[in-house]
Design goal:
The structure is a single chain. With 312 residues, the chain is an alpha/beta fold. The chain is 31% helix and 30% strand. It has eight helices and 15 strands. The protein has helices at residues 11-14, 34-39, 79-99, 113-125, 180-190, 208-225, 239-250, 268-278, and strands at 2-7, 20-25, 46-52, 69-74, 103-107, 132-136, 139-142, 148-156, 169-175, 194-200, 229-234, 258-264, 285-294, 300-302, 305-310. Strands 1-15-6-5-2-3-4 form a seven-stranded mixed beta sheet, covered by helices on one side. It has a six-stranded mixed beta sheet with strand order 8-13-12-9-10-11, with helices on both faces. Strands 7-14 form a two-stranded antiparallel sheet. Helix 3 (79-99) crosses helix 4 (113-125), helix 4 (113-125) packs parallel to helix 8 (268-278) and helix 7 (239-250) packs across helix 8 (268-278). The protein is globular. The model has no long low-confidence stretch (mean pLDDT 91).
Length: 312
């Protein structure tokens, strides 16, 4: 995939929205509508807008459903319901658009990581990935106090069960972000024999503050779990290199005769890269620690640029 960084206001010049269907998600984060507002709702061939039927707010009714806008209500905390929504609403829309010669733009910015991976699996299964490009709106600031609290449960992501042998030791890989409770819950749930923490390096972190915040989480895990923790810093913004890294890393001898379990808790680009890698190397199991509560007040502020991954 060709990767570009596009400034706000320039996106419409970079993609052919009139020949594209946009897949995106409403959210309590204001950046969910950055791509729609920048290009203009009316300028897309079709917009498929997922909205959370389990949350009582009005984000899902911001726009009036019309000829080129279809809402896809789904319970974001129910992976089976997400899959059924894909089958009921997304697949028919995509088939119609592809038959017209149009392309797919998947805005991954504010889907949950679990939903992102499920939709990616569906796109791959029905051979739509070859028609799909991705766009991501990063955040230039995140709430400094907390992002989420508590964990309701930790579950295997639908379609990413991997190969699991109860006779083997378990190696847990945490792609760490800022949410310490979710990382600890994944570790306590799986009680791994081996633990590796991957975090964004300084160069690929959006700011120095982001890097220090992520580094603090890694240091906390090392203090808590001691010598059982190994860590590595990686580039979390280069999709192609990151996918190649995951393929090489996960197929290396360090995981021989071990169950590989991965908790993707870093940015959405790293989650996408991981998903693309596991579509080829299916051995790892991917898990999702579901937060009990999000900090919806000032969770994030949208950046003035986009990461665009163009399928050519």
């Amino acid at each position: 995939m060709k990767q570009k960084v596009v400034n706000r206001g320039e996106l419409a010049k970079t993609i052919n929205s009139q020949k594209s269907i946009l897949i995106c998600s409403t959210s309590f984060e204001s950046r969910w509508k950055s791509v729609i507002e920048d290009v203009g709702l009316e300028n897309w061939s079709q917009v498929l807008l997922f909205n959370n039927s389990a949350r009582n707010d009005n984000t899902g009714t911001l726009y009036e459903e019309g000829d080129n806008l279809t809402y896809a209500p789904s319970n974001y905390n129910d992976p089976v319901d997400v899959l059924m929504t894909c089958n009921r609403l997304m697949l028919p829309a995509l088939k119609k658009q592809i038959q017209r010669g149009n392309q797919i733009i998947f805005d991954i910015s504010t889907f949950t990581r679990e939903m992102l991976l499920i939709i990616l699996k569906v796109l791959d299964y029905f051979e739509f990935l070859k028609h799909t490009s991705f766009v991501y709106t990063p955040s230039k600031s995140m709430n400094k106090n907390w992002l989420s609290k508590g964990v309701l449960n930790t579950r295997s992501v639908l379609g990413y069960a991997g190969d699991f042998d109860l006779n083997n030791e378990t190696h847990l890989v945490v792609l760490s972000g800022f949410e310490i409770e979710r990382s600890i819950e994944a570790i306590e749930e799986y009680e791994p024999t081996h633990l590796t923490v991957l975090s964004g390096n300084k160069l690929s972190s959006y700011s120095g503050a982001y890097y220090e915040r992520s580094k603090e989480l890694v240091d906390t895990l090392k203090t808590h779990y001691g010598s059982s923790v190994s860590s590595e810093e990686i580039d979390i913004t280069d999709l192609g290199k990151l996918k190649s890294y995951f393929l090489e890393f996960l197929s290396s001898d360090r995981f021989r005769d071990q169950n590989i379990v991965i908790a993707p808790l870093s940015n959405k680009i790293s989650t996408l890269a991981l998903g693309l890698a596991i579509l080829e190397f299916k051995r790892p199991q991917v898990i999702y620690p579901q937060p009990a509560e999000y900090n919806m007040n000032g969770y994030s502020e949208a950046s003035d640029e986009y990461y665009l991954f163009i399928n050519e």
